[in-house]
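Per-record layout

source: Streptomyces poonensis
name: LacI family transcriptional regulator
length: 351
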Amino acid sequence: MAGHGGRGRSGRRPTLEEVAARAGVGRGTVSRVINGSPRVSDATRAAVEAAVAELGYVPNTAARALAANRTDAIALVVPEPERRFFTEPYFSDMLRGVGAALSDTEMQLLLIFAGSDRERRRLAQYLAAHRVDGVLLVSVHADDPLPDLLGQLEIPAVISGPRSERETLPSVDSDNYGGGRSAVEHLLERGCSTIATITGRLDVYGAQRRIDGYRDALLDAGHEVDERLIASGDFTEEGGRRAMAELLASCPGLDGVFAGSDVMAAGARQALREAGRRIPDDVALVGYDDSAIARHMDPPLTSVRQPIEEMGHAMISLLLDEIADQRPAVSRGLERRQVVLPTQLMTRASS
């Protein structure tokens, strides 16, 4: 009874089990509602909230945290140098999406960089002390030891973009294959016949999938894939500029370029200008991310939009779910959930 300071007629606090019985749901569902997990239907949430109000159930945050060994903190871990975080719009958009999704919960968000071996060792010690309830891993390379460490420590974790098609952690990604494919199909439709691509780092699975889309779009249109038209970048502006200069040297007749990020497209544009090539008259250019850079470039950049803020929301949704279900993932026997959100080509003057 709410009027009795959160205690029932017997003078004791109502339990989580009593709330679950009153609402006609499982204990885990009540826990999800109380912990703010978005993965609960509106009807279920209303039933649980009604039962909480009727019984006067008061979740004791401190006691709950102690009993469940909870810290009410989530770490957003970026295994990259800090400078990359602050120069690439992808990261700030992801942070915005994660922050917005957490704003309705009691969770604190910690931003942790782990770009060097020393930072990784320090992070491993921090996580081993179980100072956070869960981890979001952003921008993970294939050989990164962090995901396996989280598995050993049995810390709930969600990864942005799987490391490979055999990913064992829950992950959220955009349709990189479809995005790469749509970029090349667009260039083909506007009459380009010699289409180059600047890849991101190929130890990132998403960058590999964009290349797969590039190759298949060309093959399906009856074009051969010329390996000289594939240049490797590193997601930086300088990497894009350097790769574009190499492509112009080896294939001066190219008339279309798909860059694996807007930042690399900005570098490619610089190299094209230095070589006296007009965009889009001589060379059509398409980027990836649809960041603010794309809209402010001259000419404005055609780019593949990946819904980065929505990806941040989806990562939080999965992670809160993992945290609410305290049992280790192995004992649950659940197939890891891999969420893939659609991409969309945003056409502008560069193509």
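summary: Residues 176-305 form a domain with the Rossmann fold fold (CATH 3.40.50.2300). The first helix runs from residue 16 to 23.
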